[in-house]
Amino acid sequence: MIPVEYFFVLSALLFFIGVFGFITRRNLIAMLISVELILNSVDINFAAFNRLLFPGQMEGFFFTLFSIGVSAAETAVAVAIIINVYRNFNSDQVNCIENMKN
Amino acid sequence: MDYGFVFLILLLPALTFILLGLAGMKMSHKVAGLIGTCSIAVVTVLCYYAAFEYFLVQGRDAATGLYPTVTAFDITWLRFSELLTFNIGFRITPISAMMLIVISTVSLMVHIYSFGYMHGEKGFQRYYAFLSLFTMSMLGLVVATNIFQMYLFWELVGVSSYLLIGFYYPMHAAVAASKKAFIVTRFADLFFLIGILIYSFYVGTFNYDLSQMSPAQMTALNQAGWIMPTALFLMFIGGAGKSAMFPLHIWLPDAMEGPTPVSALIHAATMVVAGVYLVASLFPIFVKFAPEALHWVAYIAAFTAFYAAAVACCQSDIKRVLAFSTISQIGFMLVALGVCMPDPETGAVAMTAEYADANGLGYMAGMYHLFTHAMFKACLFLGAGCIIHAVHSNEKMYMGGLRKYMPVTHWTFLISCLAIAGIPFFSGFCSKDEILVACYNFSPVMGAIMSGIAAMTAFYMFRLYYVIFWGKSYYETHKAEGAHQPHEAPLTMTVPLIILSVITMLVGIFGTLHVFEFGEFVSANGVAFGTHTNWFVAGVSTVLAICGIGLATYMYKGEETPVADMLARKFPKLHRAAYKRFYMDEVWMFVTHKIIFKCVSTPLAWFDRHVVDGAMNFMAWGTNEAGESIRGWQSGDVRQYAVWFLTGAIALVLLCICL
Amino acid sequence: MANMVMFIILAVVILGSALMCVMTKRIMRAATFLLFVLLGVAGLYFLLDYTFLGAAQISVYAGGVTMIYIFAIQLVSKRTLQGLVERLKGSRVVFGALITLISLVTVVAVFLKNKFIDMAVQMPDEEVSMNVIGNTLMGSEKYQYVLPFEFISVFLLACIIGGIVISRKE
């Protein structure tokens, strides 16, 4: 039996590793990867809470399932946008988009 | 008697001004000048007609024996309170009727004269527009029904004077002179305004005609105590500014930078006597409530008359000589008004012929001198304009011997000089003699001083006359160097000279022979009285004048002027001081720059710049800095937004925990 | 006990890979470490006896999403991305680490203070059967998820179209 707080601490660590990556990396794809980490930490929470706190129910399970689907879709669109940005700015660094301001 | 037409006197010049001001530049010079001149000619006819109706047709009121005060119209413009209203109207009194004649006559002469003088000048149409504006303002001033209307037109007169002095605005000196004139007169007008406000506050009306006051207002006047002399003296300071009394005279000599006809019209004949007219209008109040203030007017004016005469003896610019002579003559007029005294029994202007002939003589003399001076001084200035036109300079060294080349100018100038010197059978004699009599009535010392100044007048005027028309001719001595020959002025310029000198002659002859009695029309209390020449005073002043003329002849008539040069060498400091107008301009410069600017204006400017502006700038700076500091938040950098979002979320969580 | 050992092994793999993923300077390595993280998470699902979820995680994430990333990296720039050495600014890293740590401490503190961990019940050691999953996913009763399922399908379609539109060459 694994205590639920272990799962939680794991997911929190994963979440903030993702946040750290998001705010330090400059590469758009690297940022997207960090977002994936964050999403996964949330998924772990959903699954673990459902399993350990409310075993008779299925909400966490299905939310995780849908989350996986949504994140896949999100990744696809985001990558499409990144490719477009790269094409337009010849760079995939976030800073390049700042040029839009001017 | 129907005076319904008089509104045209003000309306026509105003319309002319608007027409010429807006459309003048589209017209040719001739058309614009003709429009201006014709309009003034019509106004002149109307003024003459109004004066004729007033003095001769309507005549004196049978019951009181006085000329009634006619208010042709009186429109309430602003209503401050039930009692205190600001009206614009048209009022005819003996002095305003006289002023209408003076202003319209001189203005018409100047309009005609300017055709020749300003021929081909750039801005010819603008010039005529300003002349119309000036004429309108001056006429409005003298027919004012209340003191506030007078103040309004007073300022309009100042503006038109400013515009005309600065007519040659590309010239630096003209611009500086116009600014100086405007600022000095405006400074004086500030006191005028304060005086008006005090007066109206205590009396509850802007009206200054004692005969039209309600009993309540009379009570207020009686109870005002020392307030009334103060208010009246403040008003006189305004008049002193316009009439160039010492020490506010400094603008008038510089105002000669304007075109010479303008100097004749504004700075000799009409505008500068506005101060005299003001004191004359307020005369009954002055006599009754502030006789001491009135005498102070006389002292200031006497000093000014002396000072200006002394300076006039040493000037080399002929227009400056005439300007100082104007100041001196205005001093005479104000002295005449100032030496009037209240009737010992009633303490006011008594309604008897004896009063008019004794204590109130100065009033009539001052107005008489205003009238005659306007004519001969306009003639002198216009003559000076002809000379300047001919030799293209104001300086006396370019003149001399002009009598051969400009006979008409020479003769008219001579007549005017004789008039101003006070020779019998010329108009100046009649008026100046009455002034001297009034001064001797007041005190023998004052009379003696004024007689001396009259002699100085004769001296400096004939100095000017000899320097211009006699002596060594600049043209003849410098013919080889290309000096061109002076020539007589065209007809448009000489005709006004002739008209004005004829008026001077006629008034002089008939006045000396007592055929024409100014006292019949204008006197301190309105009662008609016939003057009688005081032959002792007249004899003394005539002898003094002839001495002055003789001295001038001795010193300046010849080809060389050894005596004058010797005197100038012997008293270099005195000569230089007089030439520099006894350093009055320097004193003013010192007072304004060193004292006012440094001790008052600079700290005030510092306060304005650093505290008032500083507060505003600080607010602007603060806003700017606040914007700058939060500007970074709007970077468009997603990661930064994430950081802020995260920080905010965590801060909220921490807040919730703590609470 | 065995569960615990498995959990610790998985946790070490997940956290280590995640750290490497965000710290590495080469983008290709980041993608590879992401794959390890995803596999570790799938392992957690297996550990919780959510085998279907673990399978979905592996097939969708590890099989699909990672592939997209790798293709994207390859497409975007061979030159810049494959051998990309990203320069991390020191101050920014320190700042990010600091704020992350503060946040982490806060969140963990909030969680540990909470009461619901005491509500943990003994995990019934049985798998959720496919039958139940299928019925719940396709049912329209209460606690059944056909509507979100359909929404997800429409959403996926929209994303496919959107992705094509965005990345289409003009």
From TrEMBL, chain A:
Keyword field contains Isomerase: no
EC number per UniProt: 7.1.1.-
The protein's enzyme class: translocase
Organism domain of life: Bacteria
Compartment(s): Cell membrane; Membrane
Entry annotated with the keyword Transmembrane helix: yes
Gene Ontology molecular functions: NADH dehydrogenase (quinone) (non-electrogenic) activity; quinone binding
Reaction catalyzed: a quinone + NADH + 5 H(+)(in) = a quinol + NAD(+) + 4 H(+)(out)
Family annotation (Pfam families): Oxidored_q2
Signal peptide start and end residues: none
Cellular component GO terms, alphabetical: NADH dehydrogenase complex; plasma membrane
Membrane-topology descriptor: Multi-pass membrane protein
Main location group: membrane
Keywords: Cell membrane, Membrane, NAD, Quinone, Translocase, Transmembrane, Transmembrane helix, Transport
Free-text function comment from the UniProt entry: NDH-1 shuttles electrons from NADH, via FMN and iron-sulfur (Fe-S) centers, to quinones in the respiratory chain. The immediate electron acceptor for the enzyme in this species is believed to be a menaquinone. Couples the redox reaction to proton translocation (for every two electrons transferred, four hydrogen ions are translocated across the cytoplasmic membrane), and thus conserves the redox energy in a proton gradient.
Name of the protein described by the UniProt record: NADH-quinone oxidoreductase subunit K
Gene it is expressed from: nuoK
From TrEMBL, chain B:
Organism: Xylanibacter rarus
InterPro entries in UniProt: NADHpl_OxRdtase_5_subgr, ND/Mrp_TM, NU5C-like, Proton_antipo_N
Membrane-spanning residues: 6-24, 31-51, 88-115, 127-145, 151-169, 181-204, 224-252, 264-287, 293-314, 321-339, 370-391, 411-429, 449-470, 491-515, 535-556, 641-658
Superkingdom of source: Bacteria
Domain NADH:quinone oxidoreductase/Mrp antiporter transmembrane: 144-454
PANTHER family according to UniProt: NADH-UBIQUINONE OXIDOREDUCTASE CHAIN 5
Membrane topology note: Multi-pass membrane protein
Keyword Transmembrane: yes
Domain NADH-Ubiquinone oxidoreductase (complex I) chain 5 N-terminal: 77-128
Key word Ligase present: no
Lineage of source species: Bacteria, Pseudomonadati, Bacteroidota, Bacteroidia, Bacteroidales
A molecular function GO annotation: NADH dehydrogenase activity
Keywords, ordered alphabetically: Membrane, Transmembrane, Transmembrane helix
GO BP terms, alphabetized: ATP synthesis coupled electron transport; electron transport coupled proton transport
Subcellular location: Endomembrane system; Membrane
Main localization of the protein described in the UniProt heading: membrane
GO CC field: endomembrane system; membrane
Protein name per the record: NADH dehydrogenase
Automatic annotation (TrEMBL), chain C:
TM stretches of this protein: 6-23, 30-48, 54-72, 93-112, 145-166
Protein's UniProt keywords contain Chloroplast: no
Enzyme class: translocase
Protein source organism: Xylanibacter rarus
Recorded GO MF terms: NADH dehydrogenase (ubiquinone) activity; quinone binding
Name of the molecule in the record: NADH-quinone oxidoreductase subunit J
Domain of life per record: Bacteria
Chief subcellular location: membrane
Keywords on record: Cell membrane, Membrane, NAD, Quinone, Transmembrane, Transmembrane helix
InterPro entries: NADH_UbQ/plastoQ_OxRdtase_su6, Nuo/plastoQ_OxRdtase_6_NuoJ
Keyword Membrane: yes
Subcellular location: Cell membrane
